[in-house]
From TrEMBL:
Cellular component, GO, one term: plasma membrane
Protein name per its UniProtKB record: ATP binding cassette transmembrane transporter
Species the sequence originates in: Hirondellea gigas
Family membership: Belongs to the ABC transporter superfamily. ABCG family. Eye pigment precursor importer (TC 3.A.1.204) subfamily.
Keyword Membrane assigned: yes
GO molecular function, one term: ATPase-coupled transmembrane transporter activity
Gene3D superfamilies cross-referenced by the UniProt entry: P-loop containing nucleotide triphosphate hydrolases
Localization in the cell: Membrane
Annotated ranges, domain ABC transporter: 29-160
Main location: membrane
Taxonomy, superkingdom: Eukaryota
Keyword presence, Transport: yes
Membrane topology: Multi-pass membrane protein
InterPro entries tied to this protein: ABC_transporter-like_ATP-bd (IPR003439), ABCG_transporters (IPR050352), P-loop_NTPase (IPR027417)
Length: 160
């Protein structure tokens, strides 16, 4: 999978001021381009507030209130929310795990949500095992994820 974006410009829509005047759009990202090829690591770096999270939200169609110009393509074709959801997963900045689940239970829960109902349970469970191995989580697969300050669990790195 090749994911490319060209000349992205992102604007925050104007709000009315308390005095009823319409304010100007805020230009958040200016002329951003990039390429992410399958099998390669891409690092998006920048200072706090530079727009890294905004860029990722735009690339995954998770910012409906922002106005976007530019092109986003998957394998040379115009990207859309359904296509990007089918070929990727997005790890949020904050943990979205259920701390009382084991790693295996969490992955199984996510697989139930992401994989269609037409896929037999045996195949879904096999896919969970493959993901555990690919991510190097087999050793902690039966360990609780944990809740900071309440339930001891896996490490921060294992969570990511």
């Amino acid at each position: 999978v090749t994911y490319a974006w060209q000349d992205l410009n992102v604007y925050a829509r104007p709000r009315k001021s308390i005095f009823g005047k319409k304010q100007q759009e805020v230009h958040i990202l200016k002329g951003v381009s990039g390429l992410c090829k399958g099998g390669q690591l891409l690092a998006i770096m920048g200072a706090s507030g530079a727009g890294k999270t905004t860029l990722l939200n735009i690339l995954t169609f998770r910012a409906p209130k922002l106005r976007l110009t530019g092109n986003i393509c998957i394998n040379g074709h115009k990207a859309d929310p359904v296509t990007i959801a089918g070929v990727s997963a997005y790890v949020q900045q904050i943990d979205l795990f259920t701390g009382v689940f084991t790693v295996r239970e969490q992955l199984n829960f996510c697989a139930q949500l992401r994989i269609g109902k037409g896929v037999p349970e045996k195949i879904r469970l096999a896919r969970v095992e493959v993901v555990l191995k690919q991510l190097g989580l087999s050793k902690c697969s039966n360990t609780l994820i944990g809740v900071p300050g309440r339930i001891k669990g896996i490490s921060g790195g294992e969570k990511k």
